[in-house]
Amino acid sequence: MAERYHTASSKPTVPGRGYDPDVAKLIADALGVKLEIVQVDPPSRVPVLVTGKVDLVISVLGITPERLKQISFTRPYSSLDVVLVAAKGTKLASYDDLKNIRTAVVRSASHAQLVEKIAPAGSSILSFDDDFAQVQAVANAQADALASSPDVVEKLLKARPDFDPEIKLTLHRQFNAIGVKRGSSDLLRYVNSVLAYYTLSQPVIPDLQKKYFGKPFENLPQF
Q1: Is the dihedral of CA 9, 13, 16, 20 positive or negative?
Q2: Domains in the chain and their CATH numbers?
Q3: Does this model's pTM top 0.90?
Q4: How far is CA 11 from its chain centroid?
Q5: pLDDT of 127-148, one tens digit each?
Q6: Edge-to-edge strands of the sheet including 165-176?
Q7: Which of 36, 51, 112, 161 has the most CB atoms around its CB within 10 Å?
Q8: For position 3, what pLDDT does the model report?
Q9: Cα separation of 5 and 33, whole Å?
């Protein structure tokens, strides 16, 4: 067994704190190894796993067909709604309206792929390296809307208090799982077992979900 357990995570507001880091610590403790969190930008999450620079990716990583071609996923451990957010005065009542505005997405994120599929031809889709840059683009009027989770409304208000954002459209519900390098079948089975144990037998993970999100996630698919 390796002495260290490397997990990739997007940069949290407070390094090492949050739902994903707590889940990573739970798994590392179950493995009996030392946890080392490697902070990476969203576009780097899959590459650092494929190249063996980390052992797992625990970083709001949505399950998509494109990613399944490169890595394996555990059972889902969280979910989020993907929404389009813009100022109240912005016309965004249907996907067709995307052709008339500039939409900010995070490069390589699952929502970016979704927006590219649903947006009409000729739509202006602006890619950024992380959530912070995406939010700043809208706050600074470089973009008119962005795709993210509902809590981005609060981030926009912090970046620009005079902004009046609202959720315009809900695109889909994203199920997030832990990324594992292809071929690491033993690690995949073990992490799935840890997730199952601390969700069903000992409700540690539901307690973490309640701590960070107000209530446990419901209707997560099990496989």
Answers
A1: negative
A2: 4-77+177-213 (3.40.190.10), 80-173 (3.40.190.10)
A3: no
A4: 11
A5: 999 989 999 999 999 999 999 9
A6: 124-128, 102-106, 145-148, 78-87, 165-176
A7: 112
A8: 37
A9: 6
